[in-house]
Known about the structure:
Blueprint (H helix, E strand, L loop, with lengths): L8 E5 L7 H11 L3 E5 L12 H9 L1 H18 L4 E5 L6 H9 L3 E6 L10 H5 L5 E4 L2 H11 L4 E3 L16 H7 L1 E6 L4 H13 L5 E4 L22 H9 L1 E6 L17 H7 L4 E4 L2 H6 L7 E3 L2 H13 L1 H18 L2 H16 L1
Amino acid sequence: MTGSPATGRALVTCEQWLGSNAYAGMKALRRTGWIVEVVSEREFVPLRWRRPRMRALGKAARVASVREFNDEILRQAAHVPMEFFLAFKGAFVMAATLRKLRDAGTRTYLFYPDVSFRAHGPWLPEALPEYDWIFSAKRFGLTDLRAQLGVTSASLLLHGYDPDLHRPVSLSHFDRERYGCDVSFIGTWSPKKEAVLAALARARPSLRMRIWGEQWNRSEAVELADLIAGHEVIGEEYVRAIAASTINLGILSERRTGASDDDQITSRTFHIPACGGFMLHERTEELGLLLTENEEVACYGDANELVRKIDLFLESGIHRQAITDSGGRTVRAHHSWDARIRDILAHHVQATA
């Protein structure tokens, strides 16, 4: 999309931790000159409590905390008129809240980043038909919205990288000691990811491999026991883990309930090249529309090809660096969150003309 959107005032619901796609989008919107007010769901809905008693408390208070969150959205919108409301993911935005915003003259938009809209509680499927427009990061998400909910007011808007965070960095001795490895995977556990990494560990037991992310305590693969860090890496730690890995794997999530396809690309598809990391990505049709294989990205199709490609690129530093440089240039030129927000604003200008 093109256009020169004028500045205005927007209300955004987003997480506010460094590395969050939502936080990156909110900052990019502010950089355009828009006045942006933020309501953070984490201030109202306890999602990160870890102790069992606290998690039980949070679950018991979930309905009340979601209502409080939605009350705050409406309070902020009533305090100063907003041109539009933009939710990132929007798992706890209620349909009634969207109707009230629309009645007050505020356009409502959603950026939805995930594979399935059926996997994040009861409020999201009810709210989706109420948005004026939905930007889906998944091409098959547009099909699912139409087939399951009759929603056609939607378009594709891919993930992006945060230029404030995702950039090449110089590594210290500490960084290399803490994060350095031949191959790494950064991401939440799933059965498919465990199977791929376990097959790799069996085939190449001497490979220096590290795994970071949430829920890897669920892994049952004995081959991975010593490779799992046991925690996620976010913010600057995430950037340094990418930079210190000779090869960064892009293993995608499998199909989830409510989704018509497996994942095709993810935010790391853009983060890794933007950070100057070499990426060996699961081959998908959608990835091929964005980056040219063997020129801007390296790809694999199954576990055997993954092993062969790792052997190849560990030995071929010149080829690896050429792909890294070319992919990084393409991603940094076209796939920042500033570019994504420009597309959202261009849509808004067109819709309100």
